[in-house]
């Protein structure tokens, strides 16, 4: 495996982590939003991630001649959770129904914070691996000269 492939995988991992961070930040920012343009409360968003086979320029899987296949993380889509909204009794709220209940987003702040920390750690790991690849490439250049 060459350094370009490693950098490509790290870049893809950082991109997926960035997408996860953006979606989590939007969830946290809208955790109390009761009115959206679509109508009703904000719906929690989640990122669907898949590991797709990494292929070389000729379309062959990378690593197949070594008995394995490398996979590249890919953020497929961002979907809204269709679970029920949280009902909170607050008759003074402008969006309260006839019985005084307000439909709030189905977002758990603690879960979102854990998701944000996991995405941050994934980004940091990919960035650290990229830094190591850069140092290896620099060392190889120093050996040659």
Task: Summarize this structure briefly.
The chain is an alpha+beta fold and 145 residues long. The chain has helices at 3-29, 109-144, and strands spanning 45-53, 71-80, 86-89, 101-104.
Report the uncertain regions. Answer: none
Helix content: 40-55%
Number-wise, the strands total: 4
CA(first)-CA(last) distance: 23 Å
Given the helix and strand composition, which structural class is it? alpha+beta
Taken in chain order, the helices and strands follow as HEEEEH
Strand order of the largest sheet: 1-2
**Number of H- or I-type helical stretches:** 2
**What composes the largest sheet?**
2 strands, antiparallel
Instruction: Compute the average pLDDT.
Output: 89
Instruction: Please state roughly what percent of the residues sit in beta strands, choosing from under 5%, 5-15%, 15-25%, 25-35%, 35-45% or over 45%.
Output: 15-25%
**What's the Cα radius of gyration?**
22 Å
C-alpha geometry: elongated
